[in-house]
Amino acid sequence: MKNLRNIAILLLALLLSTQLFANEKVYKLKMATTWGPTLSPLIDTSRNMAKLAEEMSNGRLQIRVDAANKHKAPFGVFDMVKAGQYDIGHSASYYWKGKDINLLPFTSMPFGLTAPEQYAWFYYGGGLELMQKAYSKYGMYSFPGGNTGVQMGGWFRKEIKSLDDLKGLKMRIPGFAGEVMAKLGVEVTNIAPAELFMALERNSIDALEWVGPSMDIKMGFHKVAPFYYTGWHEPASEMQFMVNIHSFNKLPKDLQKILVVAMRVAAYDMYIQDYDLNATAWQEMKKEYPNIQVKTLPKDVMDALKKANKELRVDLSAKNPLLKEILDSQDAYMKKVREWSKMSDYLYLKDNL
C-alpha cells in the first residue's frame, strides 16, 4: 500500500507539473535571413539557433525561420528587423555599410582579426559592447552569428604576377575590400549570386571572390577559373543576429537568457561546421580538378593592398568618430593577441608542415 501511495503521489506531481507547463505562455518570434534555404552552413546556423532556443525553453520560445526565398528581400533584413516586421534577422554587418559605415567592422576588415581573435575581442575585448552601441540607434541588439573563418581571396582566370595585372581587371568583390581593390585599378562589380558562374564562364568578369571551398564548390567556379588565391580581405567573417529591442524586452528574463545562449552556441557551431565543410570540399575539388593552382598574391601586390587599406581606413576614421573607436579597439586587441597567435598556431603549423 505504501508503494502504491508513493506512486500515486508521483503521478499526481507529474500531472500537476504538466498542467503548469501547459499553462505557461508560449512566445513566438519570426526570423528573416539573408540566406537561401540550401545555403549551408549559413542557413543551418539560423535553424540551429531556433531549435536550440525551443529545446532549452521546453517549447516556450518558438522561432520561425524564413529564408530569403520566403520573404523575398535578402538585403532588406536590416530594415525589416528595425521596423519590427521581423523580430530577429540573421545576416552580415558589412552589408549595411551603405546605411551606416560604423557597422562594417563587425563582420570583417582586410588584414584584421582571425576568427579566434575576433571571438575573443567580441566577448573579452569590448567588441560586443561596441556592437550594441552601434546598433542601438536602430532599435536593435546584435550578437555574433557564426564565422566562416579565413575566406579565400578568389577565383581568377589568369595568374596575377604583378600590380599591372590588376589594372582593368573586372572582379566581383564586395565590401571594404572592393574599395581597396578599386584603389589599385580593379574594376569592381557586384553581381547577384545566381549570375556569378555565368559571368565568370562568359568572361564578363575576370575574377570573383565568394567564400571558401565549402560554399564555392556548389557554385562551380573551379570549373572555369584555375587560379585560387589565398585570403587577405576577410581573415574572419562574422555573421550577425539582429534582435528588435522591443521584441527582446517582451520576453521573460529566462527566455532572454536562453535566446542569447542559443545564438552564441549556434554561432560557434557554424565556425566548426564550416571548418569541416571546407576541408571536405577541398579534397573533392582538387581530386576532380587537379589543374587548380593555389596561389598567394605577389609581395608588391600585397604591399600595395595594405597601403591602400591603411589610407582608406584613415580617411573613413577621420569622418566617423564611432568607426575610429571600433577600429582602434580592434587594432589594440590585435596587437595584444597576435603575438600569442604567432607563438601558438603559426609557429606550430610552420614547424609541422
From TrEMBL:
Keywords: Metal-binding, Signal. CDD domains: PBP2_TRAP_alpha-ketoacid. One of its GO terms (biological process) is organic acid transport. It comes from the Bacteria. The keyword RNA-binding does not apply. Substrate binds at Q151, R172, E209, E234. Na(+) binds at W210. Residues 1-22 form the signal peptide. Pfam families: DctP. One of its GO terms (molecular function) is organic acid binding. GO terms for cellular component: tripartite ATP-independent periplasmic transporter complex. The keyword Metal-binding applies. InterPro entries: DctP_fam, SBP_TakP-like, TakP/all3028, TRAP_DctP_sf. This is Extracellular solute-binding protein, family 7. The lineage of its organism: Bacteria, Pseudomonadati, Campylobacterota, Epsilonproteobacteria, Campylobacterales.
